[in-house]
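Appendix B: complex inputs.
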Amino acid sequence: MDKSEILIEANQLVKRYGDFTAVDGINFQVRKGESFGFLGPNGAGKSTTMRIIAATLTRTSGGITILGKDPEKFGPEIKAHLGVVPQTDNLDQALTVEENLYIYGRYFGLPKKFIKPKIEELLDFAQLTDKRSVKVDALSGGMKRRLTIARALISEPEILMLDEPTTGLDPQARHILWDRLFRLKEQGVTLLITTHYMDEAEQLCDRLMVMDKGSIMAEDSPAGLIKTYSTKEVVEVRFGSDRNAVVAPQLQELVERIEVLPDRILMYADDGEALLHSLSQKGLHPLTSLVRRSSLEDVFLRLTGRSLIE
Amino acid sequence: MATRQGSLKIVDVQRIKSRGALSVTESRILIMRKFIPVVISIAVANPTLYLIAAGLGVGKLINHHSGGVDGVKYLTFLAPALLATAAIQTAMDETVFTTIQGFKWGKVFYAMNATPLSGRQIANGVFLSAFLRTAFSTVIYGVIIDLFGGFSSQRGWLAVLVGLLAGSAFGALMLGISAWIRNDDQFFNILGRFIMMPLFLFSGTFYQLSTLPIYLRWVGWASPIWHATELGRYMTYGHHISFVMFIVHFGYLFAMLSFGLWLAYREFEKRLGE
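Resulting structure:
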């Protein structure tokens, strides 16, 4: 890997709060222009890692550099090149859409003559031009999120950090947001995303770090992770909540791996249809069955024994 | 979007380090401008009502019976105390609400801190905006007192400056305390009823502190209103205070200002880094 292309590098990074270890000695590198994701359930240590990168939280031990600098020594210098979209919107409720963009530009010390045309560009990007004079509290959740992203772009950051960007949004708002993030990716902005949504991770990330309890479980592209940790297809069968556990040993004989969940059983196979056929030949007739492609949810289940969204 | 220049080219970190607090003040002024009729009404209505009630009403009675207080007419005696109280009240409103809003209700300080701005700069920006609003209100108060004939000479304006110092000192203290408290449920009740009201009533505002029984005078000694009022009375009409007390009054206000800012810097940095 070309060293000059590495924007973020963490080495044995640790963050502890008293006895609780939020981040437990993780190593990773983020390259210029890539879209890098932290995937894991709530409490995995994703947001803590993001805050250390954003130079707003100090680490307990280990090393980290952002743009070649230590965030504890060069906080303002690093923050000058980051755009931060936090998990909870912290827009200024007393100001309008346009004023929120303006004042954020001022926090970056940008001159008014730079900010004014930039606001037009960002309003257009966030599809909020007709809402420019509206106060923030009158916006929908999706609009607020888009405004927060637009706000983070006012200083043309090298790295855009998004903490759970679509949590709490309806499907349509999520897709609009993904589309906007794709455009940024195409322009070469380095994206750093935390999410507990596997579809979001698959859609947006070139490379993923699966985290659980402060540690890295695996790291690869979404397709690479699925290839390594799962089969091509998954058969989901339901025999009824009482019977699932009873039939599980019989199902186990048919495939290398099964996962017994409270409401269903997942069977991992490269050919789902063929597996269903074998089931019926064995006299096993599930109440419902479904063949689907493997997803990151299956990877997570394999790595941690738990579901992503609990 | 248009071609990017990139933050490496457009963000000047040295400029933010030296002048960043001003952008926080700019954000506060942007918000205050929306409430300008309210800000002006409070600044004008409060003194007008007080001066009519206490200055003219009670004052007329006192002037008639004893020819004034401390050798001057009652309104002149009262003016420095009213100015200091108004300054303190304005500075408190502007620092307490803004700080709790910034950390808890709207979390805008966290948004500011995601930019190159430090906690200390955010605290300074809020403090400066409180200072400006306090100066604005106190000067209006001074104009109205002058219109009511409360200043015996142009030296009366010195009480505006002393009031502003008291407002700044108390504002700094409130900035620090508001950042320090984590649970603000009863904070406003306590502040309004058990701190502001006694300070206003027992700081030698309407009568000299020496009139109070000794066991109540400590409220005045602790109160920035009393220290500012004593200084204001000394400067505007020559109320007698010793040189030592002159130093004590100024020293107390500067100490409160310094402690308040120290606490604010510490708590802003600490809380944003939690």
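The mean pLDDT of chain A is 92.
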